[in-house]
Amino acid sequence: MSLRCLVVDDDDFTRVTLQAALQSEGFEVAASVGSAEDAIRFIRSNQVDVATLDLDLGPGPTGIDLAFGIRRLRPSVGIVLLTSFSDPRLLASSARELPKGATYVVKQSLTDIGFLSEAIRGSVVANPAESPIAAEIPLSDAQIETLRLLAYGLTNDQIAQTRYVSRKSVEQTIRKIADSLGVGKDGGNNLRVALAREYFRLTGATRHIHA
């Protein structure tokens, strides 16, 4: 029996492309929507077997927020978070926990649609008692937050004010982040620029940063 899928992604091209790919794999795409609100509205009055959700849905609820909302309405629905973020904390420091039995798939790791198909089918039969593990990079929550603020152009003083720590603490954190990620060891680039580039690489964003 064909699984009924709900596709949620705020990017029109990605959404249409994913819908076509899933249909080619034999899935029935019950709906393809661009916001958490539209997804919840559809789930309230329709049955689906699995939902594929982008992590970053723009302003408002994240894909993880939506996943928990869907599970409250339809506990048996399989959940697949399909995202360019190699670690959900890169989007928001609170975005660590996933609904039980959910699957976290990084887009850059997909070599073919078959891998995603397996993840979707696996999410439906997953044991809901198991705690899912999202892909993570070797940084603490505080380091992730500091890296995100740095990447978006905040100075050390501004980061210190935002995180209610000293400037010296920020400087030490940045150095630890660089060591953990192996960034700046060649000494050829400005460390802040190199870290910002690494942040956007880890999020899958295409952004050019110049020293």
Q: Number of helical segments?
A: 8
Mean pLDDT: 87
Q: What is the first-to-last residue Cα distance?
A: 55 Å
The number of E-state strands comes to 5
**Widest sheet, order of strands:** 2-1-3-4-5
> What is the CATH homologous superfamily assignment of the largest domain?
Response regulator
Estimated helix fraction: 40-55%
The fraction of residues in strands falls at 5-15%
Q: Give the ordered list of helices and strands.
A: EHEHEHEEHHHHH
The Cα radius of gyration reads 19 Å
Find the CATH topology of the largest domain.
Rossmann fold
Number of domains: 2
List the main descriptive attributes of the protein structure presented here.
211 residues; alpha/beta; Rossmann fold; Arc Repressor Mutant, subunit A; 2 domains; 5-stranded parallel beta sheet; 8 helices; 5 strands; 12% strand
